[in-house]
Amino acid sequence: MPDDRTKLMAAARRALFEDDRRHGSTRWVEARGGSMRPLIGPGTWMLVDFAARPGAQGEIVLLPLGDVIVAHRIVAKVRRETGTSVVTKGDAEPYCDAPVSAEDVMGVVRALRRGRRGRVTTLGCAGLPARTIARVSLWSARSARRAPRLGSFLPVPLRRLARPAVLPLARTATRLATAPLASAARLQTAVHERR
User: Fold this and answer.
1) What is the pTM of this model?
2) What pLDDT score was predicted for residue 97?
3) Is 65 left (phi over 0), alpha (psi -120 to 50) or beta?
4) CA separation (Å) from 85 to 43, 110, 137, 180?
5) Which SS3 state, helix, strand or coil, does residue 110 take?
6) Is residue 43 very low, low, confident or very high in pLDDT (cuts 50, 70, 90)?
7) For 4-194, which CATH superfamily applies?
């Protein structure tokens, strides 16, 4: 259970981001969690455009999920009578997040860098690579969600073996899709640092 200081820091961070959103600011924000690994891990800095609205599938957006603010990838958009919702998912997570209104998105990640002074890259933030990761991620989430039902057709001994493998397999599929981009970003940084 989070202590009072942790709750206070989360509330302050959220208030800061809301203020950035009102003013249409752009700022570097440090990632703390691992839900977007291997592309974004702890210590990765994200350039967040707080004035931008979520656009295409594959974009990485900053949004509130419960008491925390996360950076997750848009894997689908849902149009309803009440407006457009986005379905997001952390690249390292097995399941999608619950749909949220596009209006609740706080900002869009435009670039990444490793550490405070690392080289800036846009690999995996937009375009074809980001859309590809989003499609693989959505596919792995759907597969993870359906796997328990499909497992019911297996004989009991195989079912017991298959059940614990579902989540690691779903995570592995997305990690395989993002690993080349993460490696390319690290290589790009290493080449830049040698110059």
Assistant:
1) 0.80
2) 95
3) beta
4) 30, 20, 18, 30
5) strand
6) very high
7) Umud Fragment, subunit A (2.10.109.10)
Residue (of 157, 22, 21, 16) closest to 30 by Cα position: 16
Delimit the domains of the chain by residue range: 4-194
Is-cis flag, bond preceding 157, omega within 30?
no
Tokens describing residue 81: 């009578």
d(Cα 68, Cα 50) in Å, to the nearest integer? 17
Q: Tell whether the model's pLDDT for residue 124 goes beyond 80.
A: yes
Q: Between the CA of residue 26 and those of 29, 74, 111, 189, what are the distances in Å?
A: 10, 20, 11, 22
- The H-assigned helical ranges of the chain are 4-23, 127-151, 156-162, 166-194
CB neighbourhood size of 16 (10 A): 14
> Could you tell me the pLDDT band of residue 67, with boundaries at 50, 70 and 90?
confident
In this predicted model, what pLDDT tens digit does every residue of 87-120 receive, in sequence order? 999 988 888 999 999 999 999 999 999 888 888 9
**Closest alpha carbon to 28 in 103, 97, 120, 104:** 120
Tokens of 47: 């350039």
Average pLDDT, the chain: 84
- Which pLDDT score is estimated for 158? 73
Q: Is the dihedral of CA 53, 48, 184, 68 positive or negative?
A: negative
